[in-house]
Design goal:
single chain, about 450 residues, alpha+beta, Ubiquitin-like (UB roll), Creatine Kinase, Chain A, domain 2, 2 domains, 8-stranded mixed sheet, 6-stranded mixed sheet, 14 helices, 14 strands
Amino acid sequence: MHPEAKKLLAEFPDIEMVEALITDCNGAARGKWLPVDKLSSLLAEGIKLPESAVAQDMWGRDVPSICLENGDIDGWCRVVEGSLAPSLSARGIDQAQVVLTMFREDGAPSLWDPRQVLTKVVAALADRGLYPRVAIELEFNLFNRPAEGLSLREALPEESLTGGNLYGLGALDEHAELLEVLRETFAVQNLPYEGVLKEAAPAQYEINVAYSDDALSYCDQVVRMQRGISAVAARFDTLASFMPKPMENQAGNGMHMHCSLLDEAGNNVFDSGTLEGTPLLHQAVAGCIAMMPDTQLIFAPSYNAYRRFQPGNHAPTQPNWGYDNRTTALRIPASPSAATRIEHRVAGADSNPYLAIAALLAGILMGLEKGMTAPPPIAGNAWTDDIDNSHLPSHMADAINRFSRSQSVRDYLSAPFQTAFAELKRQELAEFERRVTDFELETYLSA
């Protein structure tokens, strides 16, 4: 028996099933459930899945142009070292889980795999003696599941004109049992949970995830937390949603990312001893701003995501920055100088964590490599300022075109990923554009 399997089963002898999880470009969990007697071979050899399994559309459909490119060959999915962990189900700890990452038959990384895209950027920073410290804020909704026969719209609460009880402890009381099981679920897998709060919109919550100096393992943990949130909510007949804009007149779900850079000695290279930060911070900000429009498709990967980007709707609409300014796309939070960092506020909650962090780090890397100069920081309301007429792509089609033509995306994230992600998003967009909505019928059918 594999030593890791032997150790886990000695501590948790009731484990009967192993979930082998890999995350596709949309952030969806793919993989297999295997009987526990396959755990040793899984750890030693991995499993095969089609390379296209990580490049499917939102409905889990193949993208013909991707599959046909190579005859839909298999990729080798290897278990990420150290990722084997017990998993808490409704029956207790009777499951285990591993995280997979994909390689090609010749041993090269499959750059359709979002984890491998992030690996590429992290390695490029390491070559410069720099190591990211990252954190993510997870926003999501907890909706009541609609009764049988009713539409999903029936799950949405009434849109209160007076807000969603931001920071309200009473709102946490409403889901106290669910949130306690969620805490226990995270604890079993030793996930970096730092608490939960009520957010601005009705039924909206945020989980704080502790900082990490290992961006890859951190994103593995975030993916596991998202899977845990959905699974636990379902046990309580509740719908956990990471949809970026489920309610028309309420704030959407974002995924704010925080990042500083450490040198070989563990020093924060953004720390100047003052709020202003070092020249390296300013170069990193400049690179993030320059990269932001080209990678909007990563931060807003769905048709619905673009409904978040409206002035005054808690989502930035322009590539800009400021000190302790929550209306800008990049915020330098007020904090002790040793914690000087960039808060990237663009991504929606449906953004793939591996890809979102990769795009953030790619912008930082580009700014440092090219010694870029940041524009002046914005003070005041950035939603009303239009300094240079620059805006983030506000429609999915524009974001796809910008992403697919970007030399920066090709250079820093890879050409294979650029091609695959653009193609699967074109397929999704075509599906939405051919649909006739109820609102269109109400407006035009009898006009």
